[in-house]
Amino acid sequence: MNRREERRYVAPTAFARWRRRLARTVPYLFLSLSCLPILSMYLWLFMSSLSSKVLFGFIPAEFTSRNWRFLWEPIQMGVTAHMSIWRATWNTLVFAFSVMLLVVLVATLAGFALARMQFKGRESIMRLIIVLHAFPGITLLIAIFYVLYFLTKATHIKFLDSLWGVALVKASLEIPWSAWIIKGFFDNIPWEVEWSAYIDGCNRFQAWYKVILPQLKPGIAAISIFSFLAGWGEFIYLYTFIFSEQNQTLSLLIKALIGEFRFTDYGLLAAVSLFYIFPVLVFFIFTQKGLMRVTVGGIKGGR
């Protein structure tokens, strides 16, 4: 630095440095305070699962592994015997992956049609998707029950009290929004790429499968993650349309463990709840890189 630059440089005052540090600190402080209630609940779950007694809700007084006994023995609460945690986990995985596969298959085809084909009512359908997605799904419970009931009678295929039947319901409610999301990714693919496939002799299905889909990996990853998590965390439709214990998922098992609140084993309940959360955390760890490249309706940083 020469003498002219030395004369031009003015060192920041203490107030300016303090204001700059405050500007960097405030967002983190606000985020920490916003997340504190959620973090406190997870902390309670973790501490309760490892101890037989918790002081002030967070301080474990007596450490024990008995709350995790459901991993190696049947769950028994009083005279009530519950299904194996591993059977419930298998049912939950089957349900979540069924929802994910149905959503990805139908949404990619529907998104391709909405983005690439011109037909009457196309704009109205896209507006209707947003309107229908705004309605709470719980308002459709009675209508869905009658649909599944009459489908069972007409086809002699078990849709009620069946994981596959409820997976069809959950997937049908997730498909419109997923199709809307994937349409944005189709819009970002130049028409020239698709036309080059047609020139090379591909039909529309071959162009969709061989040329376009490989460029939609971030979008497919996004709707796969969202639909899997929607299936994994589903409760109300399973609780309404599943009647037999052998088809219970983890969410229904937790509801059964709550039972009457006076007799609830909260340590066991906390451990099972953590077990229910753990696969989702693992799933997110392995998929977060693909998810972070995604913005709804387009590709962020993708090729």
Largest sheet: 2 strands, antiparallel
Which CATH top level class of the largest domain fits? Mainly Alpha
In the predicted model, the low-confidence regions spanning at least 5 consecutive residues are: 296-303
The shape is flat
User: In CATH, what is the homologous superfamily of the largest domain?
Assistant: MetI-like
Q: Into which percent range does the helicity of residues fall?
A: 55-70%
CATH architecture of the largest domain: Orthogonal Bundle
Residues in β-strands, percent: 5-15%
Structurally, how many domains make up the residues? 2
The SS-based structural class is mainly alpha
The end-to-end span amounts to: 43 Å
Radius of gyration: 26 Å
What's the overall average pLDDT, rounded? 80
H/I helix tally: 12
Order of helices and strands: HHEEEEHHHHHHHHHHEE
> What's the count of strands?
6
- How do the strands of the widest beta sheet line up side by side? 1-2
- CATH T-level fold name of the largest domain: MetI-like fold
Model description:
It is a single chain. This protein is mainly alpha-helical. It has two domains: 62 residues, no CATH class; 221 residues, Orthogonal Bundle (MetI-like fold). 67% of the residues lie in helices and 6% in strands. It has twelve helices and six strands. The strands form three sheets. A two-stranded antiparallel sheet has the order 1-2. It has a two-stranded antiparallel sheet with strand order 3-4. Strands 5-6 form a two-stranded antiparallel ribbon. The longest helix is centred in the N-terminal third of the chain and has 37 residues. The two termini are 43 Å apart.
